[in-house]
Design goal:
Elements: H1 2-14, E1 26-28, E2 44-47, E3 51-58, E4 65-72, E5 76-83, E6 86-93, E7 102-107, E8 113-119, E9 126-132, E10 135-142, E11 153-160, E12 163-168, E13 171-177, E14 185-190, E15 193-202
Antiparallel strand pairs: 1-15, 2-5, 3-4, 4-15, 5-14, 6-11, 6-15, 7-8, 7-14, 8-9, 9-10, 11-12, 12-13
Organism: Methanocaldococcus villosus KIN24-T80
GO molecular function, one term: hydrolase activity
Protein name: 3-keto-alpha-glucoside-1,2-lyase/3-keto-2-hydroxy-glucal hydratase domain-containing protein
Length: 205
């Protein structure tokens, strides 16, 4: 047994064995935070000038009061974990039809580079960008959109290798193959709106 351990340590130190540690799944409905609390909190960080506040809001059937994140401004609220292949779920509700919420994924450590899906105002479609600093490149877009208006809808990003799939309420709107992909990073959101039920589930390798 000792001999096996010694061989394993030598293999690790020499680089013969490469072990990648998968970050834990993320599941946050924001119920554990205090009303009025502003990010950063828990695993969440903030980049930029936006504010992210725990706010009470009624469910769509007006029967349950939930704690959600109310976002204002142009900042990004994000979790810095190196997810590789994963499914990212998030519930989003606009404040006004003109609002344009944003979904970020595969972000680098300070959220200055990664991918972003923009929910266009007035349900005019979705746009997929790759960005690095101030340089934003449009990768794909659709002019079709779910009739979300100012109701909560569930958005889903599937990032698997160089393939990105974007769904709303289980319907696929964008499928894109990136020939020069960002292969890992954190997740986040921003733009005007309410955000809830953030979940990240790593895909099996």
């Amino acid at each position: 047994m000792r001999r096996f351990i010694v061989i394993l340590i030598i293999a690790l130190m020499s680089g013969c064995i490469n072990i990648q540690f998968m970050p834990p799944p993320l599941n946050d409905d924001f119920s554990s935070y205090n009303l009025g609390e502003k990010a950063p909190f828990g695993p969440w960080k903030v980049k930029g000038n936006g504010t992210f506040t725990i706010t009470p809001i009624f469910s769509e059937d007006n029967k349950v009061m939930n704690k959600v994140v109310e976002a204002e401004g142009d900042g990004i609220m994000y979790v810095d974990r190196n997810y590789t292949n994963f499914v990212y779920y998030i519930d989003i509700k606009r404040k006004k039809l003109i609002d344009s919420p944003k979904i970020y994924f595969r972000l680098n450590g300070d959220a200055t580079a990664g991918y972003c899906i923009v929910v266009e105002p007035f349900d005019r479609g979705y746009k997929l960008y790759k960005f690095n600093g101030t340089k934003w490149v449009l990768l794909n877009q659709t002019y079709n959109a779910a009739p979300a208006e100012v109701s909560f809808f569930r958005y889903m990003v599937i990032a698997n290798g160089n393939k990105i799939t974007f769904k709303v309420n289980a319907y696929t709107y964008i499928t894109y193959i990136d020939k020069n992909p960002i292969l890992e990073g954190g997740i986040g959101f921003g733009g005007q709106g309410y955000f809830d039920n953030v979940r990240v589930e790593p895909l099996e390798e």
